[in-house]
Specification:
By secondary structure, the protein is an alpha+beta fold. The chain contains 2 helices and 5 strands; from the N terminus they run βαββββα. A 5-stranded antiparallel β-sheet has the order 1-3-4-5-2. The protein is globular and about 40 Å long. It starts with 7 loop residues before the first strand and ends with a helix.
């Protein structure tokens, strides 16, 4: 299996009360919360790798830079897209964007690192 630049994925989310800043405890307004939006963008990045990772490996998040540009109301649909732009050794750098029916909601970069699952989990035990 090979990881190459250009891998893409897109996911949609119909915003519910569970997705709001209130629910994620990141604010006090009933609109799509930034942490939920980041999770959606990371999920798109992970989905772009489906079928391209060597067995026993996975990716973990290293960094997220995201500008959340406008609010999205409950009941609206937002679409997150991720495109693998650069491969720097084990680091995978994606451009991510999110749109709703009014236009761009967010844009930024997500960096994930390819790791050996067992070795990584062994480091996490006390």
């Amino acid at each position: 299996m090979t990881i190459e630049t250009g891998l893409t994925a897109a996911l949609t989310l119909c915003v519910s009360e569970a997705d709001t800043a209130l629910a994620w405890r990141s604010g006090d307004v009933p609109v799509l919360g930034t942490p939920r939006l980041i999770a959606l963008c990371e999920e798109a990045a992970i989905t772009a790798l489906a079928g391209h990772l060597v067995e026993g490996t996975t990716t973990v998040g290293l960094s997220v830079r995201l500008d959340h540009l406008h609010p999205v109301a409950i009941g609206s649909t937002v679409k997150a897209e991720a495109s693998l732009d650069r491969i720097e050794g084990r680091r995978l750098v994606y451009t991510v964007t999110a749109h709703d029916d009014r236009g761009i909601v967010a844009a930024g970069k997500v960096t994930r690192v390819v790791i050996d699952r067992e070795a990584f989990l062994a480091k996490s035990t006390a």
